[in-house]
């Protein structure tokens, strides 16, 4: 390869510039999104003064015709751009550059352009390439009979074909899985718009959809207003539907989406979403409404005629400074079944969740972070999704505030930890059932502080000494005592000190490739008896479950309204074996004993007697293909199981997993629950090959002898196409949502979007 001077420069540079201009593919928002190919349309321009190299078998110059020609394995390179051709010529008289024979241009962006013949004017504004083919950086392909550049900013492709699908390795002449054909494709670089005329979508070479005219922004446009892909579907509850979303850009940091939709069984529906970002904040607001009857207690609300139903949702976040931030989460609906019935979440993420929790929660908060310390002030509002609560009985927390402080370590290694909590609960009506012990209003200021001193002896004992004090003050109105049926209004409180010592002694031994661990553990907790006055309502410590995770906790309850009083001893032992290759097996068993019979824990909790139930776990993880966990709680008198929980997962390769779960409560564990529970659930994800995956899920209630969840489906995914096929069965009707089988099919085309329902 030898460098050439001005004569070769006259040949190479116009051709390189022309080929670069013609090589830019027709990227559209649906076809070539900027995220998947950020360098499209960003090839560096040719610099006429930059050095270049020309290599060819022969270079000639015809003085009479004023034509310079390079022939035979011509290679012209400048920087990262390389042009290959059989012949390249430059007609100085006509100011015309041509290249022919196996023309290949490799762009710095990674794209490769192929053609039979290239012709371009010397001013680089107009050009032509015959039989053009473009290979994009993500292996997507464009082919056209011819490509032409006019007006210096307009590229036209005649009978173009685009497809991101790989060609068949055995028969490259076969049509790809899908391709888009256009009689004419135009790319306007000024308007940054791509237009297709007489566009046809083909599957396996068979036309399936036709657009007379289709246009979309090119990848240099990040956001532009316009219609989105339609939302089409059908089910047994709402019938068939068609929705047409519209996306609108208001500014560089604000946009909205609105979608009117029509259901054949329900009528009109409309949804919308607004988003905006600021320097240190984000905002998202969404909502929807439908002209539909609402069913309550088997009857339509507002008579038999239509009535409006809907929901609102939103979220906002703001950074005040390096330590403080705030925000809100909004989630409300007119009734419990609206979100599921109208598939609101399938279009807008923040509208709702298909598998709804027991309560919709709305929150406004601010929080601060200071090393190991944390502060928060929040306000909560709840909306019942289960249907078991009267609206007037659902509480509001206005506000909920907490501060957690952790001091630096002192000279002995000890530290102070203090948790301060303030809560104001308000409701209109007390739910007087069971032993809930709630109040119409409850104002609380609580503090749990302690000094902790961890010590490790020379022998290897790990000891933690602690002294704590929990002090609470309340003002309550209509606090209901379920044992007497009376209510109390006034102030109350308590002060509960505790001292504790926890001991662990880990013993480790290495035998060949296995490390063994035996670790006995025990603690002693001493405090006064009682200290759970009946005048104090129980708002945040209702559901308690005793297991191996909270056996050694000083504060066993998650909330502040109830505390574990008295004197107790907790003890247990852990045994484990760890293999050098990564596998492990471990087991734990433990128990707690108290010195008196008075207990704040509810019946069937496992801690209601002086000697607790026996809790434990057993885990097996041989290498990386099996995860097995068994948790249990045994009755301390009969050793019968009061609680069993089994979770097992088998991993077959990186993409296949089989899972089984079993849970059993012999007795109800909270005052809210009234039935024993026994349920088994299975799930499976099985990769058939590199493209197909089968999945299933099933849950069966052994107590009531009825199915709870049933689902089976398949997913196909390759480099350009995806399809989801799902068969779901709903076993229980819920007001205006009927039970039965739902069938879902959804297609995904890379760059084009999703279709189906």
Keywords for this entry:
mainly beta, elongated, 57% strand, 757 residues, disordered N terminus, 44 strands, 30-stranded antiparallel beta sheet, lipopolysaccharide transport protein A fold, 2 helices, 12-stranded antiparallel beta sheet
Q: What's the quick description here?
A:
A hairpin with a 5-residue loop joins strand 6 and strand 7 (127-135). Helices cover 3% and strands 57% of the residues.
Question: Would you kindly provide a written description of the structure presented here, covering whatever features stand out?
Answer:
The structure is a single chain. It contains two helices and 44 strands. It has 757 residues and is mostly beta strands. It has a domain of 215 residues: lipopolysaccharide transport protein A fold (Sandwich), CATH 2.60.450. The chain has a 30-stranded antiparallel beta sheet that branches. A hairpin with a 4-residue loop joins strand 10 and strand 11. The radius of gyration is 36 Å and the shape is elongated. The chain starts with 5 loop residues before the first helix and ends with a strand. The relative contact order is 0.06.
